[in-house]
């Protein structure tokens, strides 16, 4: 009887939207890698990770979100331990030591940290905060977010580390912290920006400068952004057609199957295709808010809102990066970009939303 009620209240629109974005990702990856020596291998790897992600998402959905909440702190600690292990034993790729190699698989704990941070913050807000976030709660929440964020920044993977900021700000807003305090924290952050600037590597500084001076280094640091804009612009209204993107096929666009997958998609399916995929993301986030409003308890509401904050923040950063409005910092487009750990974690995040929404009528 319980299983029947669960099936009847299944959140089908959210599931179909997520599956649609995954399908777009598989298509775009196939197109982005077509003609390269690793074409078939990369596509098959992503397809295999898709199966793993769907199985993991099914497990997250089937187990009541309140059970996951009970395990949240332990899982968060375990992921922190993995992040520490990465600093000593991780594999370095592209200048970042972000991966643990486990036999034939590579695991990226920084992606898992996003999921556990959403969960542990939701649990903290639901069980420990009454009224509004005070000084003690602010410090404790800063610790919960700061540990994984700091460890990820040490890899150094500043792009992934930045994803924790919208998560933290969303948690403060959910906890009803006064706007004046939040604005004060932002002002302090801006005042400390010069100190943070001195800690950046030279190539990171150049990427930030390129946002304000696009023609600063068109054949160097600014090359990715320039080629991305050319790809998007050349797509026109309806695009050049599947597997027909010249920027991609002629290998002008770097990281075309990961960070700049949206540029590949926009070149081949044009403005119309870009609007469709962005509308799908909007609908997915909207469904997350709907799930939050209909949740049985504060815990479910907070879980949904924090997952939405995570995915929205990551999507905005990736789109801004592809359009040249934000620095190139290596942030993938959720559900679409190539990457196993990122796909599994994101699907598990969507599964939490489906979990909460589906159980709105199930005790």
Considering the chains and any ligands shown, give keywords for the structure:
363 residues; mainly alpha; 3-stranded antiparallel β-sheet; 16 helices; 71% helix; globular
Task: Provide an overview of this structure.
- It is built from 16 helices and three strands.
- Strands 1-2-3 form a three-stranded antiparallel sheet, with helices on one face.
- The protein is mainly alpha-helical and 363 residues long.
- Helix 5 packs parallel to helix 8.
- Strand 2 (96-102) and strand 3 form a beta hairpin.
Q: In a few lines, what is going on in this structure?
A:
The chain is mainly alpha-helical.
Number of domain modules: 1
The largest sheet is: 3 strands, antiparallel
Rg over CA atoms: 20 Å
Query: Mean pLDDT, nearest integer?
Result: 85
Give the H and E element order: HHHHEEEHHHHHHHHHHHH
